[in-house]
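Worked example

This section walks through a single chain of length 296. The input is the sequence exactly as stored; nothing has been trimmed or padded.
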Amino acid sequence: MSKKIHKSGFVSIIGRPNVGKSTLINALMEDKLSIITSKAQTTRHRIKGIINGDDYQIVISDTPGILAPNYQLQEAMMKFINETLIDSDVLVFIDEVGGKDFKNDSLIKKINKLQVPKFVLLNKIDLFNQEKLESSIKYWENIFPEIKIYPISAKEGFFINELKEIFIKNIPESPPFFPKDQFTDKSERFFVNESLREQILLNYNKEIPYSVEVVTEEFKETNKIIKIRAIIFTERDSQKNILIGHKGSALKKVATNARKDLEKFFNKKIFLEVFIKVKKNWRNDKLSLKRFGYNL
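Given that input, the structure is written out below as tokens.
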């Protein structure tokens, strides 16, 4: 009897902010891996999600949205994109139907030179008419003349199963990179940080969501409960006061909603303590960025 072939590979998904990249990845994973909000810069790190089958393992790589960096935090975020280009077995560029012109000639050249299977996905087709879709297809055919283009709707699940089959077909023969029961390369603490940061993105406006970083300092799990202590770092005292809110009401809402999400994620009761500290100018401080897990 011939030995069954096993396929494994890294599928890297990149794109501009707010085009539905995280929604797509969660749909492919059939679970919540990446936080989703309508604000730009929701994803800050490179997150690997692992999809396992009997004879395949797809490692989906989520990255920050492509932008022009204004400070060192954003420069570190863009380095994740360069990293993912290097180790991709399949590269996916996602945009939304009717998206604005993509002005990043350097990245376009890098993508066109890559000798791996590549695809462009045009998301949110449920929100646009056929004329707008055809216009977008023509635009991307000019940018990436040798790359296949697929219209999708990540939110509605259109073409998601077909996309997974395309990835399986295009990844190389290889033993699995990760244990077959592993869901992601990130730690439990990372998902605590992301859950709190998601609530901050959802509940605060203007600069507040972009001026904070979250660190989980304690994560103690027993059979019945997980005890967590997390710190929200922000840049100014005025931002700290806004985060706390009147008599602590704003922070309590963030912590309560994060706790509920984490109880679903871990399927266990959560005791969550959240504190706020001021770390001035952390977004441009190399030592702080390294502590928060960014490569410089």
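What to look for: The chain has a mean pLDDT of 92.
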